[in-house]
Amino acid sequence: QVQLVESGGGLVQPGGSLRLSCTASGFPFSSYAMKWYRQTPGKERELVARITSTRSLTDYLDSVKGRFTISRDNGKNTVFLEMNSLEPEDTAIYYCNVNIVSVDYWGQGTQVTVSS
Predict the structure, then answer these.
(1) CA-CA distance, 10 to 26, in Å (whole number)?
(2) Each residue of 27-40: pLDDT tens digit?
């Protein structure tokens, strides 16, 4: 079955950096676009970044452009989210996502807290 396991979250000071990882299994990873979402209490989950399957084209939420970088390692079935210049507004639970035949699959999420 499809499994997505996120890691790398934590507490960081404003201006700091974190690197999130999502390791996938149960589907042909290199054939699917991958996405990172985030969610804070009382708000809808929002798409932060996505990367295509073959050419690794990327797209970002406006508020993270220039600070976050999504990448993938198809040999390790892993997608990354490099987050720099973190701001308190980036505090959220971050989720890895893949959509397969119109079904969304999610990881368990990893908490990112940006605070001094």
Answers:
(1) 27
(2) 999 999 999 999 99
